[in-house]
């Protein structure tokens, strides 16, 4: 059967924006075909640049690090919840997920779409997005899902500490900064967000994509 692949990742480039307190993104020519016979690039960026994955160690010193995650948490069938009607700074609550409760079960991969990615790279992309409430984070944690993904840069811009600790404390992998979810015309699809195998660290960029059978 024909398969359509959808790129769900933000671009990484020199000066690509990130949160104000994070390392800046630098993509620099190191050598060229003219200087040494081949092109090679040096890059430096946050482990949470662009489309990326949070491991529990991001907020929990005793939490699992990136290389300790199972790929099964990052790759496989995912449920897509359309919240594109949400307005800037509007809360995303348990009520928004209740209709899908029977499918939000242990180990599930859940992704929500707000279309906020269209605001990247504007400064307000990092502050004004629809946000996950603490109550929703607790609801997801109680259901022991395996992964939560979103097309915003972080679940919550103000209560980021308790929301992250609830999710990561429940061993839920968080995939942030997705884009292009409007191209997914199905409630379930194959999703991949395998991280770089950074030993002992808190997160990693991913090349996220979806696959649909036509």
TrEMBL record:
Q: Name one GO biological process term.
A: L-tryptophan catabolic process to kynurenine
Pfam families in alphabetical order: Cyclase
Q: Which SUPFAM superfamilies match?
A: Putative cyclase
Q: Which InterPro entries did the record assign?
A: KFase/CYL, KFase_sf
Q: Which domain of life is it from?
A: Bacteria
Provide the GO MF annotations for this entry.
arylformamidase activity
Q: What is this protein called?
A: Cyclase family protein
Query: From which source organism is this entry?
Result: Paenibacillus sacheonensis
């Amino acid at each position: 059967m024909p398969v359509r692949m959808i790129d769900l990742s933000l671009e990484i480039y020199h000066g690509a924006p990130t949160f104000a307190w994070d390392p800046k993104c630098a993509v620099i020519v190191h050598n060229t075909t003219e200087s040494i016979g081949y092109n090679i690039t040096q890059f430096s960026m946050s482990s949470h640049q662009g489309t990326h994955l949070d491991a529990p160690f991001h907020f929990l010193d005793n939490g699992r690090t990136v290389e300790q995650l199972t790929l099964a948490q990052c790759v496989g069938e995912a449920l897509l919840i359309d919240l594109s009607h949400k307005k800037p700074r509007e809360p995303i609550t348990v009520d928004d997920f209740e209709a899908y409760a029977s499918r939000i079960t242990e180990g599930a991969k859940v992704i929500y779409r707000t279309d906020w990615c269209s605001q990247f790279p504007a400064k307000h992309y990092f502050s004004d997005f629809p946000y996950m409430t603490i109550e929703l984070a607790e609801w997801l944690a109680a259901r022991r899902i395996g992964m939560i993904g979103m097309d915003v840069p972080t679940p919550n811009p103000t209560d980021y500490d308790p929301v992250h600790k609830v999710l990561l404390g429940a061993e839920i992998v968080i995939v942030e900064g997705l884009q292009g979810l409007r191209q997914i015309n199905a409630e379930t699809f194959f999703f991949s967000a395998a991280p770089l195998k950074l030993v002992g660290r808190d997160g990693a960029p991913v090349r996220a994509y979806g696959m649909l059978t036509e």
